């Protein structure tokens, strides 16, 4: 049982760090794009769909940060933002978000998986005591 727990713990740690590293890469990409475009875009005069997409991007970024401390919540928030962005894209452009946006699935799912593994491991530990 000890080897099984150690193996699960190692996989959990790997998933957690893959989620964190991928979140940092995506946050860095967004920052690089904003700086490359001359700073945060002025969206006041944009269409409502563009404003909603920027809001969804902000939600995804918040999820990536939250995931470092609350993996389950961070994963859910990241994926919720991505779903929102894709709904707007489908309604306005008839297609899913393209470019780097699909990559937000990676840390979102990994944070979600890590959070679920944490809950499962805590339940298993409580059964042993």
What's the gist of this structure?
The protein has 129 residues and is an all-alpha fold. The chain has 4 helices and no strands.
- Spans of at least 5 consecutive residues with low confidence: none
Q: Radius of gyration from the CA trace?
A: 18 Å
In what range is the share of β-strand residues? Answer: under 5%
Order of helices and strands: HHHH
Assign a percent range to the helix content: over 70%
Net shape: elongated
Mean pLDDT: 91
How many structural domains can be distinguished in the coordinates?
Answer: 1
Q: How would you sum up the major sheet?
A: none
Number of helices: 4
What structural category do the secondary elements indicate? mainly alpha
Number of strands: 0
Termini separation? 14 Å
Assembly level: single chain
Transmembrane segments: 17-40, 52-69, 75-92, 99-119
Keywords: Membrane, Transmembrane, Transmembrane helix
InterPro entries: DUF7670 (IPR056087)
Organism: Telmatocola sphagniphila
Question: What does it look like?
Answer:
With 129 residues, this protein is mainly α. It has one domain. Helix content is 78%, strand content 0%. The protein has four helices and no strands. α1 packs antiparallel against α4 and α2 runs antiparallel to α3. The chain is elongated, with a radius of gyration of 18 Å. The two termini are 14 Å apart.
């Amino acid at each position: 049982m000890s080897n099984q727990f150690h193996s699960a713990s190692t996989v959990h740690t790997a998933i957690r760090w893959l989620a964190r590293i991928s979140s940092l890469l995506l946050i860095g990409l967004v920052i690089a794009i904003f700086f490359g475009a001359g700073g945060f875009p002025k969206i006041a005069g944009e269409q409502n769909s563009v404003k909603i997409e920027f809001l969804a991007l902000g939600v995804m970024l918040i999820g990536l940060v939250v995931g470092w401390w609350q993996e389950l919540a961070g994963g859910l928030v990241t994926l919720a933002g991505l779903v929102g962005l894709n709904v707007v894209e489908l309604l306005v452009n008839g297609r899913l978000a393209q470019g780097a946006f699909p990559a937000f699935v990676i840390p979102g799912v990994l944070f979600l998986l890590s959070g679920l593994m944490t809950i499962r491991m805590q339940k298993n530990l409580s059964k042993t005591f």
